Amino acid sequence: MPRILTGNRLETGDVLWWNGSDWSTQIKDAVALGEEGDALVARLVAEERINDPVLVDVTGEPGAYVPTTTRERVRASGPSVRADLARGSLSTEVI
Amino acid sequence: MYRYDQYDQAIVDARVAEFKEQVGRRLRNEITEDQFKPLRLMNGLYLQLHAYMLRVAIPYGTLSGTQMRMLAHIARKYDRDYGHFTTRQNIQYNWIKLEQFSDLLDDLSKVEMHAFQTSGNCIRNISSDQFAGAAADELADPRPYAELLRQWSTLHPEFSFLPRKFKIAVIASDTDRAAIQLHDIGLQLRKNDAGDLGFRVYVGGGMGRTPIIGKIVRDFIPVGQFLSYSEGILRVYNRYGRRDNIYKARIKILVTELGIEEFTRQVEAEWAQLEPLGLDAPQAEYDRIIAQFSDPEYDLTATDTLDLSDPDFAMWVAQNVHAHKQPGYAIATISLKPKRGIPGDASSAQIDVIADLAEKYAHDEIRVTHSQNLVLAHVRKADLYALWQALDAADLATPNLDLVTDIIVCPGMDYCTLANARSIPIAQNIAAKFENNVAEQRDIGELKIKVSGCINGCGHHHAGHIGILGVDKKGEEAYQLLLGGSGAEDASLAKILGPGLDENGIVAAVDKLIAFYRTARSAPEERFLDTYRRLGPAPFKEAVYG
Amino acid sequence: MDNQDQSAVAGAPSPALDDTPALLRFRDDAPFESPIAPLADFLGGGNFAAVRVDPGENARDLIPHLGRLKLIEVAFPKFRDGRGYSSANILREAGFTGEIRAVGDVLVDQIGFMRRVGFDSFAPDAPLDPGVVQATLDRYPYVYMKSADGKTPVWALRHG
Ligand code: HEM
Ligand code: SF4
């Protein structure tokens, strides 16, 4: 199962995904990571600029990954009860 | 209500400066997140699913119009235009940025507010009765004592690294509107045979993983000594509360493991050491604070006549308005449980409206209730109709206080990192079946449904007549059904009725429970809870699972 | 700042050359540097003038012996474990005027509270930034409640 990297930006708390070279606030930009993902997490933990960096399991295709847990789907879409605050690239419908 | 003097303001200003400096050190990477986390938690700042969440303290749930308007300003400027009122009479914002937090604290401190000790293993915001100072059944206003506790517990040097959080509630009537028996310390003001004022002291109540009803450690502590007595309780807890297991760290576990007799003996022994040290504030300080909670200048010509010819207004009065101790006045509760709403949420615009109405009609005071509603405590009956019309225009006049749609709900998995399941949609789906028919809701009568998204129990599910608890069932959201809890003076803990259910199943189960209750009650006045207590779980279980 | 050894704060604490953590002291007498007995050994009858109290140990056991103690070390293996605050306060309430030293995971954000409950020296595992220490200790002009440091609570200031 593909894994993508997510975390929250220290300064803003924003939910972020790793697009291969930088962070994005849209899950559609996320890239699947292999072994290098674990090394990246270790580096981020040591750097202390991204809170709670973690690799999460997803299904689907590049550009349309959907996390396997409700929790991560909520993080990706926004609160299911506030469609007006949705992040954009993943509909609250998928929760 | 209480106003800061130069000392209070100087302490808040210093605390704000201290936290700004701590934020600066974190942003410059001079401290790690592990070191910073307890510091930010002591300022009510959590990292949640979507962003930082901030919990602002509303001491004993009382605030002025100016303070209320500041809460709207915070929502507008630093958040997404809404806030969430909580069961401990605070407000939470869900989309806060750390880099703006210093400015936010500055704004709050301009109106004598802050976020200290709204989280972390310290003494939290003191809660109280939302009808304090207005209720016909109270002995005295409990809030001066809550304020004394607030000051005593603010930046307490010995008790800022307790085994776990510590929550205190104070009331002054036999009707418990603050769930004192479900707090770490619950204080009930009373008179002894000699006519002196003092407190009955409950210790070791709480919800969460191991719900327990508080026990009486002392039937009467004179008001003049309740601070040193509290110090004694806290010291025993700080020294002997468990620190090996976070789930056993609350004082309720210590009280249970020692037994109430031994725990009481230790507290009394500790208090004997502490009492002579002069820790209690002097009478002059009591008098100063009590004076600030004196009655507003009532209109002595106000009358009790009320025109109830508008049926919608009459319905709201019947359901949301309570008797006031002053002739010609009433207590109005503003429901934050509108149709299709999120329980406890209010938009900036609504918060502003309420601030204006409080200034215009309610002697500039607003209260937050533990059931996530708001109260205008001193309204002339003659003004009720105008007030109701203004509330109605802002979708704030839902006549459902204590009814089936007045549901307490924690944020659940829509916001909270600790959640197992969503709780808000469950409440919305339950309410959807009843919200268009107030007459039916009123026929069902008082029914307290409480929903938590995980075992921490922020939604008070253990104190629900019907409690619902979100659990994780192999990665799927599932819900346990509990019955028979109460957070009032007849406190009891709800018990699990049967196997967990999915989202649709739980909503349908509540329907079945209510249908069964309506056929089984002995009289229309018998509440759901009382029918349950009379009949026991078996027929209710049969109704849901049979 | 009352009664403190300015040099310890103002001068950058010299990085420890050996394993001994830099000592931050707020006393005028010379530091006591000799064997510090674990509480059990001390109570077992050894002839010590310094003792160490770990979290979970009862500081009140020392009360009969305070007269012959110069230094009581209170250990903080983890800063989140606040039992040591009660230990220090209890010792001061019992009249102990010797040195009470906080040792271990002692962070700058805690030392204001520690000073209040009666600690007057600090041996933190990681050196503290003296500027931040100074700012922390100078921060609060008033306090709400009495504690071992004898500061006047605001209720007393309000009513003179
Ligand atoms: C969304 C962020 C929140 C987090 C992370 C959080 C966390 C927790 C945790 C961990 C506990 C269990 C503590 C224990 O048993 O030792 C707890 C209990 C509680 N929380 Fe929350 N909570 C949150 C929001 C809320 C909200 C929104 C409310 C009010 C609606 C609330 C009210 C309570 C209450 C009343 C308890 C029970 C206290 C007791 O056990 O006596 N919390 N919370
Ligand atoms: S009960 Fe659980 S899910 Fe709900 S707010 Fe509390 S910690 Fe979060």
TrEMBL record, chain A:
Source taxon at top rank: Bacteria
Name of protein: DUF2849 domain-containing protein
Automatic annotation (TrEMBL), chain B:
GO MF terms held by the record: 4 iron, 4 sulfur cluster binding; heme binding; metal ion binding; oxidoreductase activity
Domain of life: Bacteria
Domain Nitrite/Sulfite reductase ferredoxin-like: 52-110, 343-394
One matching Pfam family: NIR_SIR_ferr
Record-annotated Nitrite/sulphite reductase 4Fe-4S domain positions: 119-272, 404-544
Keyword annotations: 4Fe-4S, Heme, Iron, Iron-sulfur, Metal-binding, Oxidoreductase
Keyword Protein transport attributed: no
UniProt cross-references to SUPFAM superfamilies, sorted A to Z: Nitrite and sulphite reductase 4Fe-4S domain-like (SSF56014), Nitrite/Sulfite reductase N-terminal domain-like (SSF55124)
Protein's UniProt name: Sulfite reductase
Organism, as annotated: Sandarakinorhabdus glacialis
Taxonomic path: Bacteria, Pseudomonadati, Pseudomonadota, Alphaproteobacteria, Sphingomonadales
TrEMBL record, chain C:
Record-linked InterPro entries: UCP030820
Chain positions covered by the region annotation Disordered: 1-20
Name of the protein in its database record: DUF934 domain-containing protein
Taxonomic source organism: Sandarakinorhabdus glacialis
